[in-house]
Amino acid sequence: MNFPDDETGQVLAEMQQAGIDLSQSHDVVFFHLFEQESQAQAMVEHIKEHLPAVKCNLHPDQTPNVWDVDCTVVMTPSHAAIVEQEAVLEKIATSLSGYNDGWGIEA
C-alpha cells in the first residue's frame, strides 16, 4: 500500500512495515495538550456531548502544569480517515487553547 508523502503517511507506512494490519479496525488515539486542566476538561465535555463515539481520557502530562486529553476512535486507519478525524479534534482543542500532539494506534 502506498501512502501520501507527509507525516501521517510516514507513520502509516511504518506501522504497515511493523506488521500492523491497517485494513482492520483499531483503537486510534489522538493526543492533545493543554496548559490548564479546565481547558482540557472543557474538551472532554464537548466531545462527550457532540461526539459520543469518541472516548476521552484526561490526565496530567509528565511535564508539570500540562494536561493531556487522549481521544480514542475505533476506526480503520486510512490516511484520509486519520487526517479527517485529526482535523475535527484539532479544531476543538484549538478553540480551547490546546493543541494537537499527534496520534497512534493502541497495540
Specify the helix fraction band. Answer: 25-40%
Sequence of strands across the biggest β-sheet: 2-3-1-4
Span between termini: 21 Å
What is the H/E order?
HEHEEHE
Tally of alpha and pi helices:
3
Number of strands: 4
What's the Cα radius of gyration? 14 Å
Described by the principal axes of the CA atoms, the overall outline is elongated
- Poorly predicted ranges: none
Q: Profile the largest sheet.
A: 4 strands, antiparallel
Which class best fits the helix and strand makeup? alpha+beta
Average residue-wise pLDDT: 95
Kindly estimate the percentage of residues that lie in beta strands according to DSSP.
25-35%
Give an overview of the whole structure:
- Helices cover 39% and strands 29% of the residues.
- The chain has helices at 7-17, 37-50, 79-95, and strands at residues 26-34, 55-60, 67-75, 99-105.
- The longest helix is centred in the C-terminal third of the chain and has 17 residues, at 79-95.
Features:
alpha+beta, 107 residues, 3 helices, single chain
Quick recap of the structure?
The chain has 107 residues and is an alpha+beta fold. It has helices spanning 7-17, 37-50, 79-95; strands at residues 26-34, 55-60, 67-75, 99-105. The protein is elongated, with a radius of gyration of 14 Å.
